[in-house]
Specification:
With about 210 residues, the chain is mainly β. The protein is built from no helices and 26 strands.
């Protein structure tokens, strides 16, 4: 069977050099810049979302309405980005040169820093994500959070600035809440939605029976 082609709304602007995978839907007033931008298969790009050049988006990713994805961002497979999320790539941005005589160029330079969102992670609606950080596998960022540092895999981070407060499963179910910089060791954590088991050892979440 031939896979369904990408569906691109007539009002969307897709620049040359953009690759969009089969089965992906790009909705109204989306702007995807090229070159070297890749959107994988079976994705959803919500209306009025902006995707900059050089961005890499994996397969089965959901970008809800009004998301801003800047240069330097990589989204893994199965990532969910809630409505109104803003990514950033410059920690100390300025519009002009120090003497105010000229605008700084928009192209990436030594101040452009990357952000990686790993497979299965969720970023809640209205969050702002800093740069030079990683949001780990199946991590979850609560709505309205301001992410200024990396979030470990399977951790839930909330607040402004965001801090980790719980361990979550692949299904997004909270398994254990904690306070402090890292979770305590714990065995026998079971996801109520899937039955999959987890353990925390040395502050790291381990999957005891990950899906094949």
């Amino acid at each position: 069977m031939t896979p369904d082609p990408a569906l691109v709304h007539p009002s969307a602007e897709i620049e040359p050099g953009v690759t969009i995978g089969a089965g992906t839907a790009v909705w109204a007033y989306v702007h995807v810049r090229g070159p070297d931008t890749r959107i994988g298969v079976d994705c959803i790009v919500g209306e009025r979302t902006y995707v900059a050049y050089g961005v890499a988006i994996g397969d089965r990713v959901k970008l809800n309405a009004g998301v801003y994805v800047c240069t330097g961002v990589t989204l893994g497979t199965g990532v969910l980005v809630g409505a109104g999320v803003v990514f950033t790539n410059d920690r100390y941005p300025r519009a002009t040169t120090p003497d105010l005589a000229a605008l700084r160029p928009s192209e990436p330079d030594e101040r452009t820093l990357p952000t990686v969102v790993e497979d299965g992670a969720t970023i809640g609606a209205g969050s702002v994500v800093g740069c030079d950080l990683t949001i780990g596998r199946f991590a979850m960022v609560g709505m309205g959070a301001v992410v200024t540092r990396s979030v470990a895999p399977f951790h839930l981070a909330v607040g402004q600035p965001a801090r980790t407060v719980a361990i979550v499963s692949r299904a997004g179910e909270p398994l254990m809440r904690f306070s402090g910089a890292r979770p305590p060791d714990r065995e026998g954590l079971v996801c109520p939605a899937s039955g999959l088991r987890y353990a925390v050892r040395g502050g790291v979440v381990e999957e005891l029976d990950p899906p094949a």
